[in-house]
Amino acid sequence: MGDVLAVAEQREGRIRGVSYETVSVATGIAQGMGGAAHAIVIGGSGVSAAASDLGRFGAAKILATETDALADYHPQGFAHAVSEAVRAGGYGAVVFAATAQGKDLAPRVAALLDVPLASDITDYQIESGDVVAVRPVFAGKAFASVAFSASPAMLSIRPNVFQAKENPAAGEVEAFDLAGLDPSGWTMQLKEFQPSGGGSKDVGEASIVVTGGRGMKGPENWELLEGLRNALGEDAALGASRAVVDAGWRPHSEQVGQTGKTVAPKLYFALGISGAIQHLAGMRTSGTIVAVNKDPDAPIFQVADYGIVGDLFDVVPRITEEVQKLKAGD
Amino acid sequence: MKIVVCIKRTPDTETKIRLGGDGMSIDPDGVKFIVSPYDEFAIEAALQLKEAAGDGEVVLLSLGGDDTQETLRQGLAMGADEAVLLKGDPGVDALATAKALSAELQAMEANLVLFGMKGADMDQQQVGPMAATIMGLPCATAVSEFDLAGESVTCRRDVEGGSEVIEMGLPAVITLTKGKFEPRYASLKGIMAAKRKPLSEKDAQTGESRLTVKSLAYPPERPAGRVVGEGADAAPELVRLLREEAKAL
């Protein structure tokens, strides 16, 4: 069978933006395999109503598992649900998003189904009906093409790399009722979700990232970056270099690069960052890279599309001002 | 309390990667190999637990070639008590690796199994939760800090927009990322002691690899960028280019 299942994500009953990318990739693979794209959404009551939107991006059928026990992500419960859906549907490929949830869930589903997984892929080809996935290795210092000799092909896609393409399909929502769901057998519990301050976008998911390095001189100067982030709008997030996190200026959740997050936003600002190899590894697949640094020989300028040589304490406020003007004119 | 820490030998993260002649692997010549940095967080966490409890044992487990002995000795030098090397090739099929490790872990009967969140080579982030699923154990991934109280462990993991607090009963599996457990350096005394600590070897039962690397390539070159100008006066031109040329704003 050449049908492909996209595993969509929801939070508080709303489909998460990255899921449109997941469904788009599933649709592309399904075309190559001669099948249809399906999606599965798991959540509490009301989630099937939100799910029908996935049809716009190519899902012919949407399985909705609506049960209060799975209103919030639960690793064991969700892994059970997805693996049962894959078994029932006989899919040729299964696509996750490599988000915090997807990175946690996909390996469990792969283990339950006894098939290998290619995680965090940035490209794929279909070769004689089989998926060949391209994924960064060594933190992006190299790219590996990997091939499966097992079915279904299990993949997770790096957020922001693939385009969510409108491609209307039937989008028929069908209840997927889980037999054998037994929460009493779960040996772990989510006790609490603590939202991070400000409720801003996560650096791993934002389409614009504003990252500060040692050149920022101290945590008190982050107002400057917050100003630019705010001017850029709600799709923008703050990032930090390893040096800045190690110095305790910013939390690890904002760290970009090896031992932090690998990001691929459409627009990346590297401010006061020299460009250590571990940092470059974490952001070099970004769409457009802007660098501001005092040192014209800083390695960051070798990967930047646009650079300004200068003191960021002068330059950044002017960029903020110009962005505000631009947005005001839109 | 028996804690097993699964570790991997990976290139130093500062190493420049050169591709090998086969087009499928890296050229190891001149590459410094280390304990994967995430695994160091796991070793540190295990040592702190043992120290806090005043007794217990920390065992290292790794799947790799003969040279992984050196990696295990580095972990023993940090303070682990003994090490087991499963001789085999940890390829890109993480499930095969997870199966081999699980077979050994089940025989070890650990109270707690720790992994680094991912290996700093293949960056897959898979082996820990796969091994836990195979063994039927609870598993919290990408954990930045955790606390043990009796037979229960409370973990914090960062997710988009916040952090989750997860509680699990022992035995359990945790994969670690950067956070509370800043790895210690091995002392000279630790390095000397590590030479005499037990390190056993056996063949890994990895089975057939069903995910294989067909080719390895350098990242696509970014076209040469340009310096828009110097100082704040270059900002208007930068923003114009971002809008009109890059279409990024």
Characterize the structure shown:
The complex is a heterodimer of chains A (330) and B (249). Chain A is built from 9 helices and 18 strands. Chain A has helices at residues 18-33, 47-51, 75-89, 100-113, 223-232, 242-246, 277-283, 300-303, 312-329; strands at 4-7, 10-11, 14-15, 37-43, 59-66, 93-97, 117-121, 123-127, 130-137, 142-148, 153-157, 172-175, 188-195, 208-212, 236-240, 267-271, 288-293, 306-309. The mean pLDDT of chain A is 94. Chain A is α/β, with parallel strands linked by helices. The N and C termini of chain A lie far apart (48 Å). In chain A, strand 9 and strand 10 form a beta hairpin. Helices cover 28% and strands 29% of the residues of chain A. Chain A folds into 2 domains: 4-185, 3-Layer(aba) Sandwich (Rossmann fold), CATH 3.40.50.620; 197-329, TPP-binding domain (Rossmann fold, 3-Layer(aba) Sandwich), CATH 3.40.50. The radius of gyration of chain A is 21 Å and the shape is globular. Chain B has a 9-stranded mixed beta sheet, with helices on both faces. Chain B starts with a strand and ends in a 5-residue tail after the last helix. In chain B, helix 3 (94-108) crosses helix 4. With 249 residues, chain B is of the alpha/beta class. Chain B has helices at residues 37-53, 68-78, 94-108, 127-135, 188-194, 235-244; strands at 2-7, 9-11, 33-35, 57-64, 82-87, 112-116, 139-149, 152-159, 162-169, 172-176, 199-203, 211-217, 226-230. Classes of the chains: A alpha/beta (330), B alpha/beta (249). Strand 10 (142-148) of chain A pairs antiparallel with strand 12 of chain B.
